[in-house]
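Escalation from tier 1.

The customer reports that the assembly of two entities below gives different structure tokens on two consecutive runs. Tier 1 could not reproduce it. I'm attaching the input and our single run for tier 2 to review.
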Amino acid sequence: QVQLVQSGAEVKKPGSSVRVSCKVSGGTFSSSAFTWVRQAPGQGLEWMGGIIPIYVTTNYAQKFQGRVTISADESTATAYMDLHSLRSEDTAVYYCARGRNWFDSWGQGTLVTVSS
Amino acid sequence: NFMLTQPHSVSESPGKTVTISCTRSSGSFASTYVHWYQQRPGSAPTTIIYEDNQRPSGVPDRFSGSIDSSSNSASLTISGLKPEDEADYYCQSYDSSTLVFGGGTKVSVL
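Tier 1 run:
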């Protein structure tokens, strides 16, 4: 059974960056794809982008191009999402999920609060 | 890019059947799959239907998915509604390298 465990909640200042991690256990990390999805308070799900570690290929939603970096460390079976130039509208729960076009496992979510 | 449109909310009594629609604005469900996720309050989403009509292990057969190519829409049907089915449901599809979620439908069990 694949498990995705994310890092803890963060509080950040506007203009700063945040890194959220997603540690994977119980599956084949390198050949899997991992996707990041966020959910603002009271809102729906929003796709941010993803990575396939074995090919070191990333794909980002146009909305986040230039502001998000998704990476992976095969040695620790961990995927990362870095979001830069944070603004208040980035306050949301960030989820990692395994899969490229659909997702068979999800992390528990990480709340990122952007506030001055 | 395309959009996926879902009703904002549906409600029904226990034991009844509800159907949630998901209409694609452009492109075709005939050439890409649709997937459905359930999100209970305060929890992460879980997959209940993938590739139009497939259920992951552990998802009861009360949940079913279908495609109507003529209207370019997908549907999620929940039969024998139970109180624990009260949740938000999201459809999701893709086009080349872009993934899109529907806005979500809140299912209330009266």
